Amino acid sequence: MSIKNVAVIGGSGNLGPAVVKALVDTGFTVTVVTRLESKATFSSEVKVQRTDYDSASSLAEALAGQDAVVSTIATAALGQQQKIIEAAVKAGVKRFIPSEFGLNTQKVTGGAAKILGAKLAAQEQLKKAAAENPNFSWTGISTSLFFDWGLKVGSLGFSIKDKTATIFDSGNEPFTGTNLPTIGLAVASVLKNADTTANRYIDVASFVTTQNAILAVFQEETGTKWTVVNKNTSDSLKIADEKLAKGDYSAFGDYLKVELFRDGEGKSAKLEDLANEELGVSFGDLRATVKAVL
Ligand SMILES: NC(=O)c1ccc[n+]([C@@H]2O[C@H](COP(=O)([O-])OP(=O)(O)OC[C@H]3O[C@@H](n4cnc5c(N)ncnc54)[C@H](OP(=O)(O)O)[C@@H]3O)[C@@H](O)[C@H]2O)c1
User: Fold this and answer.
1) Ligand 1 first shell, C-beta below 6 A
2) Got the DSSP string for 240-292?
3) What are the chain's domains?
4) Which tens digit of pLDDT belongs to each residue from 148-186?
């Protein structure tokens, strides 16, 4: 299967620009599909297709002639993917990469799985479409945390401004994370290796590490001892369940701590589970990443 023309949905967000850059750098012809009301701007290297996701004809126009669609659409807009997938199948798109790029949704359980329901529904829709259309296929890519981005915004428990680390349980539970440029490279490689990546759900990562290992590098690179706040994931779980019971989906941030940091949780991909080698995607340098975000 040969992929040349690639449409990226929501290419203007946190992740999208890294995916667009990697696809352009790899030599794909990239069209960014953006909402009619979007204020996003894009590089002159890509075609921009302003699209009404509620209109089948607008989506058909946007996806005509595309070999692959990569969705990096916002979590809050995941419901829109259903129509986009339907339009992609009708347009003869050969590969759909849905907006996963987080926890491995095939392993997530409990409240977190409920919150990520739209991602699981998209997988079911894609599997059905691939079974019914021999020319259509999909690849799901789990990246766990956006690692470099997460160090900056605090989702890994580190506040650079306050030199404070919030460590969950022992801080020794291994978890994975992926730098945004590496996610872009993984997407490009999946499309370059379209035959071997068809109809699979894969994990990639820049790092398999622990909160304590990251803290040690932060302390070495800043030359100071950081304030450590210890928390229990059992409390995070209680808070998450209470929030979810009230319909508050910010519970996801609390479930995330349980899925990644709970002692013995073991849900993060192990080195041997990762598709990095197969895709030719390098692991990251933890110290270099920490230095870059400081
Ligand atoms: N692993 C992690 O740590 C992590 C962190 C955050 C997100 N994620 C996951 O990664 C994926 C991408 O997340 P992101 O943070 O990059 O997304 P994002 O920045 O929130 O949004 C991506 C793009 O989606 C489009 N969009 C926004 N609201 C929309 C709406 N209501 N309807 C339709 N389109 C809308 C916008 O593009 P236009 O303006 O161009 O239309 C936006 O730039 C999601 O699946 C998310 O769950 C993972």
Assistant:
1) 10, 12-16, 34-35, 38, 40, 72-77, 80, 99, 101-102, 143, 145-146, 150, 155
2) HHHHHHTT-TTHHHHHHHHHHHSTT---SPPGGG--HHHHT-PPP-HHHHHHH
3) 5-144+178-203 (3.40.50.720), 145-177+207-268+284-293 (3.90.25)
4) 999 999 999 999 999 999 999 999 999 999 999 999 999
